[in-house]
Design a protein that fits this description.
The chain is an alpha/beta fold and 519 residues long. The chain has a domain at 276-444 and 476-502: ATPase, nucleotide binding domain (Nucleotidyltransferase, domain 5). Helices cover 33% and strands 21% of the residues. It is globular and about 65 Å long.
């Protein structure tokens, strides 16, 4: 369905209310919905399109299966969790427009009946690591790969999953009449149209942010062999990509004919809700850890730390992501029998809890490693060291962003996601960064950003104007703490030791030890 600003659904006709001595005109409340189909659950917010007030919410979990490097979900579970989350709101039947934000990179392959040919490998499925390396080599190495598709490909990218599928399950790859992303799949179920958006497709590895088009030379590689006709159309920002079909209305409890926005990648939707200012960087603490900033030009980092994604508002979103964040800390706390906030000073420990491999740095086979244990070590110190190891990696990624989206060193780090509500996370970021921290109070910024997209459709107000009108960014600012350079140096030393070992360089040289007083 072609679209653009002219396709917005304007629903502002007043209702006439009669009083004994006069006629009152009262505009109806226009409701819109935003959904966040994340790795482990789907969250929905129903929002008043005029004021941005959250009217109702719902959430439903879905399964992630697999052991070792495998992480996959049957796409039909996303449908069911969306249906259940919408039902929980009690207001789904009243929404004028809906938009879906989703986890990036997942590979959804559908047959000619539009049914999944297999469960979808997710962004944190690392089985395609050798395929990613082969693709980077086929594109001429890291620098040429980054120039072509904006990023140095890793196991997370959709194209790597597709190459893995062709190599390991060729019958399933041949049966795939449609290939898409998780949020595209839900769009398809709502509208019957195969449509994606530029923010999400920029994480596939087969679309060029610089060229704003599918990279047909990548699709034609022997490792890929994918025809563009099997891929979704890429919608423009703020475009209405379809309407809820009668069948989808019955399935999801939505009004038939409600407008469906183009949707977005999860972090791009979160960026809409944050309305990031120049010089700021956002740090999102969820299952994974993510740092990003908005930019006016596409990025191409040959070192591979920064991925060159597009934003949901027509700009760009340089981003770095770690596989491990809140889930890793919670697992360590569980092993130790501690509450996640029950921490004590790390006292010389260095812990890299890369429990699911790692993407930043790109070491998909890594495991958790801990240095500095003594008889007297307090378990609470081990938990604090886990926080520090993860935050140190994320702050290194924040510094890398500066090349593509220059930051003001005095500007706050914008903290969001489930971890942002945790005292230990907040205090560790403040202490290791030495910068003020802005904690975004919105509980579900990704779903709220998707609701902004739906609101722009329903009101005709452009996204930036609507975000300002809604006051989307509600925050609390925490003053900086003195930067803990000693802890950062210790973690950096241990990280170097681990990376040397993973690269096959052998053990550290004799007498080597961490810098500073803990050596």
């Amino acid at each position: 369905m072609a679209g653009g600003p002219a396709d917005r659904v304007l629903l502002r006709d007043p209702q006439v209310l009669k009083a004994p001595d006069r006629v009152l005109f009262s505009p109806p409340v226009v409701l819109v919905a935003g959904a966040d189909c994340s790795t482990q659950s789907t969250k929905v917010l129903v929002v008043d399109a005029d004021g941005g007030r959250v009217i109702a919410s719902g959430a439903a979990a879905h399964r992630v299966d697999g052991t070792g490097g495998a992480r996959e979900t049957d796409p039909r579970e996303w449908e069911e969790s969306l249906r259940a989350a919408l039902a929980q709101t009690g207001r789904a039947g009243e929404v004028a427009a809906i938009s879906i934000a989703g986890q990036q990179h997942g590979l959804v392959a559908l047959d000619r009946r539009q049914l999944p040919v297999r469960p979808a490998p997710l962004w944190n499925d690392t089985r395609s690591a050798p395929d990613a390396r082969a693709l980077v080599a086929a594109l001429g190495g890291p620098a040429d790969c980054a120039r072509r598709v904006g990023s140095v490909l890793t196991a997370s990218f959709t194209v790597s999953h597709w190459a893995w599928l062709r190599r390991t399950e060729p019958d399933a790859a041949r049966a795939a009449a449609r290939v898409m992303l998780p949020h595209d799949y839900l769009n398809l179920r709502l509208t019957g149209e195969a449509v994606t958006d530029r923010s999400d497709v920029s994480g596939t590895g087969w679309w060029s942010p610089g060229g704003e088009a599918y990279a047909e030379d990548v699709l034609a590689l022997d490792l890929v062999g994918l025809e563009p006709a099997r891929l979704p159309r890429v919608a423009a920002p703020e475009e209405a990509t379809g309407r809820v079909t009668p069948a989808a209305a019955e399935r999801f409890g939505l009004p038939a004919g409600a407008a469906v926005g183009c949707g977005a990648a999860d972090n791009a939707a979160g960026a809409l809700a944050l309305a990031l200012r120049p010089g700021e960087a956002a740090l999102s603490l969820g299952t994974s850890g993510t740092v990003f900033a908005t930019a006016t030009r596409p990025s191409s980092d040959p070192g591979g730390t920064v991925a060159g994604f597009a934003s949901a508002d027509g700009r760009y979103l340089p981003l770095a992501c770690t596989l491990n964040a809140t889930l890793a800390v919670d697992r360590v706390a569980g092993w130790l029998g501690l509450d996640r906030e029950d921490v004590a000073p790390a006292r010389g420990l260095a812990f890299l809890p890369w429990l699911g491999g790692e993407r930043t740095p790109d070491v998909p086979t890594a495991t958790g490693t801990l240095w500095g244990l003594r008889y007297e070590t307090d378990p609470r110190s081990i938990l604090q060291a886990a926080y520090e190891g993860l935050v140190a990696t994320l702050l290194e990624a924040v510094r890398e962003l500066d090349r593509w989206a220059p930051q003001d060193p005095a500007a706050p780090i914008v903290l969001l996601g489930g971890g942002a509500r945790g005292r230990a996370w907040r205090e560790t970021v403040r202490r290791l960064s030495g910068r003020p921290v802005t904690v975004v109070e919105a509980a579900e910024p990704v779903a709220y950003g998707a609701a902004l997209q739906a609101g722009a459709l329903a009101t005709g107000i452009p996204l930036d104007g609507l975000a300002a009108a809604w006051g989307a960014r509600r925050e609390a600012v925490l003053d900086p703490l003195p930067a803990d350079a000693e802890t950062l140096a210790r973690i950096g030393w241990w990280r170097g030791v681990v990376l040397e070992a993973l690269a096959g360089a052998g053990p550290p040289r004799a007498g080597a030890g961490p810098p500073g007083p803990s050596a």
